[in-house]
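Structure first, sequence second, as always.
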Protein backbone atom coordinates (compact mmCIF):
# COMPACT_ATOMS: atom_id res chain seq x y z
CA UNK A 1 0.00 0.00 0.00
CA UNK A 2 1.33 3.41 -0.95
CA UNK A 3 1.24 6.24 1.52
CA UNK A 4 -0.55 9.49 0.79
CA UNK A 5 2.55 11.71 0.78
CA UNK A 6 2.25 15.39 1.56
CA UNK A 7 3.96 17.58 -1.01
CA UNK A 8 5.66 20.73 0.27
CA UNK A 9 4.18 23.97 -1.04
CA UNK A 10 7.07 25.27 -3.14
CA UNK A 11 7.32 27.52 -6.16
CA UNK A 12 7.57 25.66 -9.46
CA UNK A 13 10.73 26.30 -11.45
CA UNK A 14 11.27 26.60 -15.16
CA UNK A 15 13.57 23.65 -15.61
CA UNK A 16 16.44 24.78 -17.80
CA UNK A 17 19.35 22.88 -16.29
CA UNK A 18 21.57 20.36 -17.99
CA UNK A 19 22.56 18.13 -15.09
CA UNK A 20 21.16 14.89 -13.70
CA UNK A 21 20.77 14.67 -9.93
CA UNK A 22 21.16 11.46 -7.94
CA UNK A 23 19.54 12.53 -4.63
CA UNK A 24 21.33 10.18 -2.24
CA UNK A 25 24.61 9.01 -0.81
CA UNK A 26 26.40 6.38 -2.82
CA UNK A 27 25.11 3.17 -1.30
CA UNK A 28 23.88 0.14 -3.20
CA UNK A 29 20.31 0.19 -1.88
CA UNK A 30 19.84 3.70 -3.30
CA UNK A 31 20.78 2.61 -6.83
CA UNK A 32 24.29 3.98 -6.97
CA UNK A 33 25.65 1.18 -9.15
CA UNK A 34 22.86 1.79 -11.66
CA UNK A 35 23.41 5.56 -11.72
CA UNK A 36 27.14 5.04 -12.22
CA UNK A 37 26.51 2.74 -15.19
CA UNK A 38 23.90 5.11 -16.64
CA UNK A 39 26.18 8.14 -16.31
CA UNK A 40 28.97 6.26 -18.09
CA UNK A 41 26.77 4.89 -20.88
CA UNK A 42 24.77 8.06 -21.50
CA UNK A 43 27.53 10.56 -20.72
CA UNK A 44 25.49 13.06 -18.69
CA UNK A 45 26.67 15.58 -16.09
CA UNK A 46 25.97 13.95 -12.72
CA UNK A 47 25.25 15.71 -9.44
CA UNK A 48 25.06 13.81 -6.14
CA UNK A 49 23.67 14.98 -2.81
CA UNK A 50 25.40 12.59 -0.47
CA UNK A 51 28.82 11.31 0.40
CA UNK A 52 30.65 8.57 -1.45
CA UNK A 53 30.37 5.69 1.00
CA UNK A 54 31.53 2.87 -1.26
CA UNK A 55 35.19 3.91 -1.25
CA UNK A 56 37.22 6.72 -2.73
CA UNK A 57 37.64 4.97 -6.08
CA UNK A 58 33.95 4.07 -6.51
CA UNK A 59 33.30 6.56 -9.32
CA UNK A 60 36.44 5.46 -11.22
CA UNK A 61 36.85 7.89 -14.13
CA UNK A 62 33.55 9.70 -13.51
CA UNK A 63 33.72 12.97 -11.63
CA UNK A 64 30.28 13.75 -10.22
CA UNK A 65 29.68 17.19 -8.74
CA UNK A 66 28.33 17.68 -5.24
CA UNK A 67 24.90 19.31 -5.48
CA UNK A 68 25.12 22.90 -4.26
CA UNK A 69 21.37 23.47 -3.83
CA UNK A 70 20.86 25.22 -7.19
CA UNK A 71 17.74 23.46 -8.46
CA UNK A 72 17.81 25.49 -11.66
CA UNK A 73 20.94 23.61 -12.76
CA UNK A 74 19.03 20.30 -12.81
CA UNK A 75 17.21 18.92 -15.83
CA UNK A 76 16.29 15.54 -14.35
CA UNK A 77 16.40 13.50 -11.14
CA UNK A 78 17.25 9.80 -11.51
CA UNK A 79 16.79 7.70 -8.39
CA UNK A 80 16.82 3.95 -9.10
CA UNK A 81 16.46 3.06 -5.42
CA UNK A 82 15.85 -0.43 -4.08
CA UNK A 83 14.89 0.85 -0.63
CA UNK A 84 13.48 4.27 0.25
CA UNK A 85 11.26 4.84 3.24
CA UNK A 86 11.41 8.65 3.48
CA UNK A 87 11.52 10.18 -0.01
CA UNK A 88 11.66 13.78 1.20
CA UNK A 89 14.02 14.94 -1.55
CA UNK A 90 11.82 13.35 -4.21
CA UNK A 91 8.69 15.01 -2.79
CA UNK A 92 10.48 18.35 -2.80
CA UNK A 93 11.52 17.85 -6.43
CA UNK A 94 7.96 16.93 -7.41
CA UNK A 95 6.74 20.19 -5.83
CA UNK A 96 9.38 22.21 -7.69
CA UNK A 97 8.41 20.54 -10.97
CA UNK A 98 11.67 18.83 -11.89
CA UNK A 99 11.16 15.62 -13.90
CA UNK A 100 11.90 12.46 -11.93
CA UNK A 101 12.70 8.89 -12.88
CA UNK A 102 12.53 6.53 -9.92
CA UNK A 103 11.38 3.10 -8.80
CA UNK A 104 8.44 1.66 -6.94
CA UNK A 105 10.64 1.63 -3.80
CA UNK A 106 9.76 5.30 -3.22
CA UNK A 107 6.05 4.57 -2.92
CA UNK A 108 5.21 7.42 -5.29
CA UNK A 109 2.71 7.31 -8.14
CA UNK A 110 3.63 8.04 -11.73
CA UNK A 111 2.45 11.36 -13.13
CA UNK A 112 3.30 13.71 -15.97
CA UNK A 113 6.66 14.63 -14.40
CA UNK A 114 7.29 11.41 -12.42
CA UNK A 115 8.09 8.14 -14.16
CA UNK A 116 8.12 5.12 -11.86
CA UNK A 117 9.70 1.81 -12.84
CA UNK A 118 9.78 -1.61 -11.24
CA UNK A 119 12.90 -2.51 -9.28
CA UNK A 120 15.75 -3.65 -11.51
CA UNK A 121 14.15 -2.29 -14.72
CA UNK A 122 17.47 -0.85 -15.88
CA UNK A 123 16.49 -0.74 -19.56
CA UNK A 124 13.20 1.04 -18.81
CA UNK A 125 15.00 3.66 -16.72
CA UNK A 126 17.72 4.06 -19.35
CA UNK A 127 15.20 4.50 -22.18
CA UNK A 128 13.25 7.06 -20.15
CA UNK A 129 16.43 9.05 -19.50
CA UNK A 130 17.18 9.05 -23.23
CA UNK A 131 13.63 10.16 -23.98
CA UNK A 132 13.60 12.85 -21.29
CA UNK A 133 17.02 14.31 -22.03
CA UNK A 134 16.55 14.02 -25.77
CA UNK A 135 19.67 11.97 -26.16
CA UNK A 136 19.68 10.90 -29.77
CA UNK A 137 22.52 8.50 -30.29
CA UNK A 138 23.13 4.80 -30.33
CA UNK A 139 24.81 3.28 -27.31
CA UNK A 140 27.05 0.26 -27.57
CA UNK A 141 26.52 -2.00 -24.55
CA UNK A 142 29.19 -4.52 -25.50
Amino acid sequence: MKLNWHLPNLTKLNVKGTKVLFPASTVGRKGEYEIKTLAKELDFNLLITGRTLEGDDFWEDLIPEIFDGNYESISLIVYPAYIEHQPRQILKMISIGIPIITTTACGIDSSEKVKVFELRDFDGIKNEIIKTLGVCRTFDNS
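Margin note: The CA atoms of residues 29 and 82 lie 5 Å apart.
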